[in-house]
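Lab notebook: predicted structure, single chain.

Context: the supervisor wants predicted structures on file for every construct in the current expression panel, including those that have not yet been purified. This is the next one on the list. No modifications to the sequence; it matches the entry in the shared construct table.
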Amino acid sequence: MASSHAACAEQAIAEISRAIEGRDLAGGIIFCSSRYPREELAAAIAGHLGGFPLVGCTSAGEITARGYDTDSLQFMGFPKGSFTFRALHVSDIDGFDREEARRQIRHLAANARQESRALGEDASQVALFLVDGLSHREELLTMTVQDALGDIPLIGGSSGDGLIFSETGVLCDGAFRSGTAVIVMLTSARPLHVFSECYYRPGDARMVVTLADPEKRIVHEINAAPAAEEYRRLAGSPGALLDTAFFAAHPPMVRTGGAYHVRSIQTANPDGSLTFYGAVDRGIVLAIGEPVDRIAQMEAFFEQLRSELGEIDHVLCFDCVLNRIDADSRQLVRPVSDIYAANRVRGFNTYGEQFRAAHLNQTLSGLAIGR
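Prediction complete. Output recorded below exactly as produced.
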């Protein structure tokens, strides 16, 4: 486990390399601020980090030993002897072939299962998933990958670019590329537990999407009125500025599978429409989310996690960037960061989270690793 705040990509990766020197790793995962030039970062990785498979992505913020962090680089390594680590890259998710992907993922899982025998009969398996957060392909990929995995749970996050919404990168074959995804089969003799937590509950207001462009995730009308105007009115703030802080504080929620999930808004557009982070279509009914006591829920969750797993080694987390923005608006950044630090949480702020077969928004999702 190592992080760096060096401004130069070469210096940051060299710092990571020194921190893990001499350790025999099965694999590693790296999350990096979008401020680092990607070609320089990839060259530095090639020059300093070798001998084990490495995956990663650009972020909308990092989670380090400090808790919420920025302009940094976070590395998590998985020691040989306790883990096996096998990666599969999907290099063209626009031309994604579902049947071929299923075949490759099943092959990956079978090889990982064979390899895991060295860790004992009780070894646990989890699939880690990183995907381009601007691809609009997360739902299709998540469902396909989980279907191919069977009962092996999937957990992951969508790459970010610091709320620029221009281009994100997933580390694939030594370069940070857009339009890509990576699946890692992680096996361990240690306890592994995937989770997804939401800090909002549905309010009374309801919105029906009456005109939408599902391919672009754009909603043009809500309740047969201009989408942005109607959403703002139902949120109780008809004169408010529609920015990321507003979206984070008043997240739309959709009921699926018997439970409510956030379906976050990314931007308000000049024509009065709204662009979402996740799938939207005509006819879906949305509630407007209201916050719960986030600190109390987080403390209770980690307490329960320790009672189930015993001592926690680390938690790899995928925390929606809107959670971070809302924490800042509510002056909760410090207490949230303290909870993350106390529970050895590391990860990044995402443009969406993947949990089993679902692509989610505004959750804290992750993998807890026991000792």
